[in-house]
Design goal:
single chain, 391 residues, alpha/beta, Aspartate Aminotransferase, domain 2, Aspartate Aminotransferase, domain 1, 2 domains, seven-stranded mixed beta sheet, five-stranded mixed beta sheet, 12 strands, binds pyridoxal-5'-phosphate, pyridoxal phosphate, transferase activity, transferring alkyl or aryl (other than methyl) groups, PyrdxlP-dep_Trfase
């Protein structure tokens, strides 16, 4: 199986067939599993084998298919499926950390990730230092011998800054810290995170892995030792495990993830090029545009700009007019969906942030994040240009 390329793994890896030899993966909607004898039950609790399950919070055949398939695609030894992206982020952090530990994190983070690092971890005696994720000098200055984790998004949400993964990993590993990457924007299709130095890769599977806005889900990937020795004991006892129904949707979603994400990425580039320099926009931010400050870094690490771009209409008033004039893009807050979605971060996902922090992170009142879907790219560009005419 290791010889297969990602697209083949996405269709076949991890498949477990029942006695009926079904073609499409079966869904096992069961929380429990029957033991033939009391001795079998005792043995299962002592040490469960590869294909032996105890309780769906610990594992389930359909969930295991998803874990094995996404691990194969990512090139990770193992994976743990979680109830949401935030269950994955908080679980990965909490399973490793204890009071007195130190974490260094990029400041430009998804709002809920920032809450976990800033409000939750610190309440349990973990010290967190925030740095400008694109500035290696700040990482170097903040990392200490007691730093346990370096945490960042491969491409930040919503300002789309690209982190120097190998650079940060080298500095973190020099002090013995673990490198955890929230890799949503790079997507499993383009990810080379483990090869570039990440120790743990985290996805909100709600985004490109499902890709159709149906499920809330997440996954933590890494070495077998980390996933089964550190993450699993924490997750299975604290309750953030994935439902088998969700796992089944994701298994089927993975089959066409590569095709979807590549098409969405091509459309995002088409739209970014079509909007760049528009007189009513103060900025068009897309890591796949040569004008992006980390364009080369993004090409070296990810090889593409991804499915999300951001535009700045200059003011909240102009951005609201633009949003209200859109015909295809939906005003919502998911991303990686088949449907194109426009999000004004300053008034929605990042509303909670104080004004100075928003300004510092480039979350201006006129900023609109555009998640590009599977519609015709010319229709999408026309929709945006027409909406800009209305501003
Ligand atoms: C969406 C998202 C999350 C949280 O995922 P949920 O599935 O909504 O819990 C975390 N990090 C990033 C970068 C995201 O985009």
């Amino acid at each position: 199986m290791t010889e297969w390329n990602k697209r083949t793994k996405a269709v076949h890896a991890g498949t477990r067939r029942s006695q009926y030899n079904e073609v499409s993966e079966a869904i096992f909607l069961t929380q429990g599993f029957v033991y033939d004898t009391a001795e079998d039950a005792q043995q299962r609790f002592l040490k469960a084998g590869e294909d032996e399950f105890i309780y769906a919070r610990y594992g389930n055949p359909t969930t295991a298919m998803f874990e094995d398939r996404i691990a194969a695609i990512e090139g990770a030894e193992d994976a743990f499926a979680t109830a949401s992206g935030m269950a994955a982020v908080s679980g990965a952090l909490m399973s490793v950390l204890k009071a007195g530990d130190h974490v260094v994190s990029a400041r430009a983070l998804f709002g809920s990730c920032l809450y976990v690092l800033e409000e939750v971890l610190t309440r349990y005696g973990v010290e967190v230092t925030f740095v400008d994720g694109t500035d290696l000098a700040q990482w170097k200055a903040a990392l200490r011998p007691d730093t346990k984790i370096a945490f960042f998004e491969s491409i930040s949400n919503p300002a789309l800054e690209v982190a120097d993964l190998p650079g940060i990993a080298k500095l973190a590993h020099d002090v013995g810290a673990m490198v955890m990457v929230d890799n949503v924007f790079a997507t499993p299709v383009y990810s080379r995170a483990l090869e570039l130095g990440a120790d743990a890769v985290i996805y909100s599977a709600t985004k490109h892995i499902d890709g159709q806005g149906r499920a809330l889900a997440g996954v933590i990937l890494g070495s077998k030792e980390f996933i089964r020795g550190t993450v699993e004991p924490y997750m299975k006892h604290t309750g953030g495990s994935m439902s088998p129904f969700t796992a089944w949707m994701l298994v089927k979603g993975l089959e066409h993830m590569d095709l979807r994400v590549r098409a969405q990425t091509a459309s995002a580039l088409h739209i970014a090029k079509g909007l760049e320099g528009h007189p009513k926009l103060t900025r068009v931010i897309y890591p796949g545009l040569e004008s992006h400050p980390q364009y080369q870094l993004c090409m070296d690490q990810i090889g593409a700009g991804g499915t999300v771009l951001a535009i700045d209409a200059g003011s909240q008033e102009a951005s609201f007019k633009l949003l209200n004039a859109l015909g295809i893009f939906l005003i919502s807050n998911n991303l990686g969906d088949a449907k194109s979605i426009a999000t004004p971060p300053a008034s929605t996902t990042h509303q909670r942030l104080p004004a100075d922090q928003k300004a510092h992170l480039g979350i201006t009142p006129g900023l609109i994040r555009l998640s590009v879907g599977l519609e015709d790219p010319d229709d999408l560009l026309r929709d945006l240009l027409a909406a800009l005419d209305a501003v």
